[in-house]
Design goal:
Blueprint: H1 2-21, H2 42-53, E1 61-68, E2 82-89, E3 94-101, E4 112-120, H3 140-150, H4 152-157, E5 163-168, E6 177-182, E7 192-196, E8 202-206
Length: 207
């Protein structure tokens, strides 16, 4: 009888020890769903590309920046899913185009910064002249608000037109200017507004 009691006691101690040895498994937390990609402002994307381009040529200047809207990324006025910037290097006599995209997309667009091929550069193209990155002190969402004040009537009449942006410097103005255009391109748009990229002041309405 005593032997049976000892056996039961031994089994009970063993069970308790085994139970203590096995720590309870933490409950796995459900993973939060991935956030959908969001468009970004032009100046922000511009600086991402500029930082990468500095590794190509330390003396680079900006020549042009333009917005690109992509399927699968929600449209936000003043922002874009992708941006394309062209930089030039006076010392190399070369130009190079970079892109920044929030997603992988057709047209050789890759998520993040992507460097395109180099090409020769010998001077202004189509009236566009190089300018230092420091001259750009305004962002696309800011100049959109300025342009909307001047183009409110047109925007109300054409609510389905997406707004695009081009940033470049021409001989018409001393500073680079944002061209805020209603439509997909300069060729198809019949209304756009120029805003000074340094001061944020309204410059001109183009029809």
């Amino acid at each position: 009888m005593k032997q049976k009691k000892r056996m039961w006691a031994t089994a009970l101690v063993t069970a308790v020890l085994c139970g203590c040895a096995e720590a309870p498994r933490p409950t796995e937390k459900a993973k939060a769903p991935a956030k959908p990609p969001e468009p970004v402002t032009g100046r922000w994307a511009f600086h991402q590309m500029y930082s990468a381009a500095r590794a190509w040529a330390p003396d680079i200047q900006a020549l042009r920046l333009r917005s690109l809207h992509l399927e699968g990324v929600p449209y936000r006025a003043g922002r874009a899913a992708a941006w394309e910037a062209t930089f030039v290097s006076p010392s190399l006599g070369r130009a190079r185009t970079y892109t920044y995209s929030v997603i992988e997309a057709p047209g050789n667009l890759h998520e993040g910064v992507f460097a395109g091929l180099e090409e020769s550069y010998s001077g202004p193209r189509g009236g566009a002249e190089p300018y230092p990155i420091a001259a750009v002190k305004t962002d696309s969402n800011e100049v959109y608000e300025t342009a909307l004040k001047k183009g409110a009537d047109y925007a109300k009449k054409h609510p389905d037109l997406r707004v695009n942006f081009i940033l470049e410097r021409t001989r018409r103005f001393p500073n680079p200017a944002w061209r805020v255009l209603w439509g997909d391109s300069v060729a198809t748009s019949n209304f756009s507004i120029l805003v000074d990229a340094s001061t944020g002041e309204y410059l001109q309405t183009l029809r």
